[in-house]
Design the sequence.
């Protein structure tokens, strides 16, 4: 598919250049390379998931396109936020993750789904990917928070580029938004699924929802902060990854079979 490989190749090249460009004081070019990679990444993701040029009607989806779309949203959050707040050391990491995500989507493009189980299914999928992206942004900020706290304890230079309390508050704003979208995703999934199936995806999704609900409740009622709160975030995100991306990886790659 020429329409897919051209933007994918451009995204790989731009992300690779952004990773290899180590000099943070060389002006806007490293960030421009990341932006070019992000644009090409978005085009490739849209073409891939819409099945453009494939000759088959319907959308194509799987674990790699889901991770690719998630990384695209995380880079979008970084691109917006970095215009107002310095985020040192993040560009090269995101470029490397974007490089991996695009490459995985090229190798494991997923499967076509000509028909949705319900008219609400596309909204269910969009909300699910959006929640993945918001939790991914929360993890990005949590990692920066961990690093800044470690540097503060060791009294080394560097930092997150913003006050710790503001960074922590921003982290859990993303968690709250992701939790709201995850809740809507589960409600829609329960609504149009007939009957509701307690498969691996459903079980891990509900477990992730319980972890995030407990985390937000504990933070509000008991003031959970710091490492305890961040570990709860990591645990919920791992469960959420196992819910769709993990189960699809097992089916598509390890077992080499498709599923609805």
Sequence:
């Amino acid at each position: 598919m020429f329409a897919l490989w051209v933007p994918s190749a451009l995204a790989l090249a731009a992300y690779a250049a952004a990773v290899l460009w180590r000099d943070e004081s060389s002006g806007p070019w490293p960030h421009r390379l990341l932006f070019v990679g992000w644009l090409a990444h978005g085009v490739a993701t849209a073409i891939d998931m819409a099945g453009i040029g494939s000759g088959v009607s319907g959308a194509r989806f799987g674990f790699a396109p889901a991770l690719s779309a998630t990384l695209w949203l995380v880079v979008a959050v970084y691109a917006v936020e970095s215009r107002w707040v310095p985020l040192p050391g993040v560009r090269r990491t995101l470029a490397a993750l974007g490089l991996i995500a695009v490459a995985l989507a090229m190798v494991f493009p997923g499967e076509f789904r000509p028909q949705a189980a319900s008219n609400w299914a596309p909204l269910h999928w969009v909300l699910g990917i959006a929640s993945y992206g918001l939790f991914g942004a929360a993890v990005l900020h949590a990692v920066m928070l961990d690093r800044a706290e470690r540097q503060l304890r060791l009294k080394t230079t560097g930092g997150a580029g913003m006050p710790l309390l503001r960074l922590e508050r921003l982290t859990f704003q993303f968690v709250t938004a992701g939790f709201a979208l995850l809740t809507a995703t589960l409600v829609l999934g329960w609504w149009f699924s007939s009957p509701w199936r307690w498969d691996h995806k459903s079980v891990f999704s509900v477990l992730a929802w319980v972890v995030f609900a407990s985390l937000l409740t504990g933070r509000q009622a008991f003031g959970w902060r710091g490492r305890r709160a961040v570990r709860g975030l990591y645990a919920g995100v791992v469960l959420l990854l196992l819910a769709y991306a993990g189960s699809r990886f097992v089916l598509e790659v390890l077992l080499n079979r498709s599923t609805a």
Notes: The CA atoms of residues 210 and 236 lie 8 Å apart. The longest helix spans residues 121-154. The longest strand covers residues 59-61. The beta strands are 59-61, 111-113.
